[in-house]
Amino acid sequence: MASPCDEGSFAALLPKLTLEEKVALLSGTTFNSTPGVSRLGIPQIKVADSINGIRPSTLDSDMTTACFPSTTCLASTWDSELLERMGEQLGHEAGLKSAQVVLGPTINIHRDPRGGRNFECFSEDPLLSGQLAGAIVNGIQKNGVGACPKHFVCNDSETMRHYYNVKESPHGRTLREVYLAAWQHLLRVSDPVAIMTAYNQVDGAFCSENKTLNTDILRETWGYRGALMSDWFATRSTAASIKAGLDLEMPFPILRGPELIKEVETGAVSEAEIDRRVLKMLELRDRTKACHSDAEERSETSKETNQVARELAAGGLVLLKNESNTLPLSYSQPIKVAVIGEFANEPVVTGGGSASCKPQYKDKPLELLQQAFNDDSTVQYSPGVRTRRIIPTAPTNRLTSADGRPGVDVAYFNNTNPTRPILTEHQATPHVFMLGHFKPGLHVPGSRLELTTTLTPSTSGTHTIAVRCTGAFTLTVNGTPVLLRSTQPSITTEQFIFNHILLETRTTRSMTAGESYAIHLVMHSRTELVQREPTPYAATLGFEEEYSEDAAISEAAALAGQADVSVVFCGRSDQYESEGFDLEGMEMPANQIRLIEAVAKASKRTVLVMHCGNPLDVSPFVDSVQAVLLAHFPGQEGAKAVVDVLTGKVNPSGRLATTWWNRLEDAPSFGRFPAVEGGDGPEIRYSEGLAVGYRCDGVAWRARWPFGFGLSYTEFGYDGLQVTVDGKSLRCLVGMTNIGQREGREVVQLYVRGFKSDTVWKPERELKAFTKVLLQPGERRMVELHVDLDIACSYWDEGGRTWRLEEGTYGIQVGDCQGDFSVPKTTEWDHL
């Protein structure tokens, strides 16, 4: 067999392929791979999630990876050069996981602060989203690994994402100037090897078979030449998806394979159309280093990778409030610091879903703060309230199996022989997970599992026992049934993977410390296989010992009262923000609000370190605290970055990439999110039109902290703005001075203010260029920004279906400097 690396071009092998081989190349074979053709040396392609950490092939693998900050943190850096360096490290990490294509970045728009997957996306602004994503793509693809940005297009809600229809025309201003614009900006600065289509419909056609989007706009108008793949289980047709330009169905041949061959035989699809799709899959192999796809997957720590991760986390932290110079924490005189909150000792690193990963390590902010002050007595800790949506898995050290080992015994039975197990095994944790692939010989449907153990609590009290099962179950304690569900839960495979609270059933029981309780869980398999998706088969035993929330808050407040400053770690984790579901509101968990209010009342000064991917409603407590630091989901180096900023080792330079609203009702999408039932099924209407985020009217009074906002430990001054039009280019030159006492980085943001027109509404201002500069105290520098005139000033003419540039006078804003420039004549075009 020829080696893949020996071929000059895989695309040249197209004439040698049989129809069956061609069709096989147009579907995946596993959750992360596509087939090859061994007789011609055409290798498989392996793909891997995500830009926040390259995950291993196996879903339930314990293998770790370098964990980078969430994408909202990356966007808050506003630093294209740094993100390109990150992309290079991702390419290296993909090699360690034997993958040729990285699935990401995700550039869907932050339309609503309840979007469950917003943490995985960049911004409410299309230019910022597209240009930063393009920088990551360029870095990934420097050394032969490919990038696959997602999801094309309008996948900005998780609720009913497989079905909802965005009732907007691809030829309307809303899609062209906001949602499609992010992709145009991406493709202006990068050339990804592949693009992933979205689950949803746009204008009545699913994205996987939307010819207007995939062929007319993406390929023909914009000239994109890479491959198009479906999201997982998102292909909705056989012939239509081929004709619309979808090259690859993932992860399995459900609507292709034999079905596609039949369509060719009947003439519904021509072999020439098949060839066009196969050619893209061969060209994809030409652009990636497919010759290493069979290497053993591994995890390696790297100083260079960790340094980039730390710079990203530090560069994306946003200082939102800092009264009376509360931060940085002073070393000049002895101070007592109260560190409060579970997240200080159990750090948050990532959101949930396909953008999550197992980090190589987790530093604890508490320990790092104690090391920074070099005195354990200076920094005291209280965990405060518990921060979780689901009951934790019962800890191994509280469980004893039949032979005395820590853990549980699991036995599997088929209904055909219900008294004799087909398999018995010991597990350290009470968690069984199967998805589509089952234990050898296990019948699905037609089987059950039995989990047995002895549970010994460490304290006396009314404790909580929870069960998360995919089928009907019975739980007994000391032979007495305490929980049961006679039917299987009505959930999708997607909900099973991401939204565990939908599986959970709880009960409380009075238990005594040191006393042993016999636990027996019987769960039946689902009564039928799930169609078109893998069938879940899973059971988890949860356990949590009683604690008093009031006592926990009182303890934290008492500690805060003895300190000079209290640092409260709060917010959300991957249990709250995840792929697979949207949030219900902007509120922080109620028990955390109570904790913050009590600490702020008792403390001399209070600092909040907030973990989240979405804006939070901080109105209950923001006026009572002196400083607020937005830490996002900062990755495995995030704890170091947070402590660096808190102690002044690093000057914060992050700027918000999404508006933080005063209340949910202030968001332009309020009342229009998520999907609602329409005449033909669930639908979304972008009724706010172009007024997404900071583009909306009244943003000055509706926003708590505006788009682009962020404080520093130094100050910057702007002067001498010069604006010139040179041919088709807009050139801005502005003076910048660090007028403070510390080295600092400033994000220079260029906004264009539109001309006034009675017929064409334009936002008050729009971001058109940005850069990030480092200045020493007292240093002055002239900063130059260039932007094409058409990008700076054009609007989409719906009637003419073209971009139009109206002559007139336009305004410019850079920092606190303003100017104007003239566009001499009307032009129009429709290109990338």
TrEMBL record:
Keywords tagged on the record: Carbohydrate metabolism, Glycoprotein, Glycosidase, Hydrolase, Polysaccharide degradation
GO molecular function, one term: beta-glucosidase activity
Alphabetized InterPro entries for the sequence: Cellulose_deg_GH3 (IPR050288), Fn3-like (IPR026891), GH (IPR017853), Glyco_hydro_3_C (IPR002772), Glyco_hydro_3_C_sf (IPR036881), Glyco_hydro_3_N (IPR001764), Glyco_hydro_3_N_sf (IPR036962), Ig-like_fold (IPR013783)
Catalytic activity: Hydrolysis of terminal, non-reducing beta-D-glucosyl residues with release of beta-D-glucose
Biological process, per Gene Ontology: glucan catabolic process
Pfam families to which the protein is assigned, alphabetical: Fn3-like (PF14310), Glyco_hydro_3 (PF00933), Glyco_hydro_3_C (PF01915)
SUPFAM superfamilies per record: (Trans)glycosidases (SSF51445), Anthrax protective antigen (SSF56988), Beta-D-glucan exohydrolase, C-terminal domain (SSF52279)
EC code: 3.2.1.21
Top-rank taxon: Eukaryota
PROSITE patterns per the UniProt record, alphabetical: PA14
Pathway the protein takes part in: Glycan metabolism; cellulose degradation
Ranges of residues in domain PA14: 403-557
Protein family (similarity comment): Belongs to the glycosyl hydrolase 3 family.
Protein name, per record: beta-glucosidase
Lineage: Eukaryota, Fungi, Dikarya, Ascomycota, Pezizomycotina
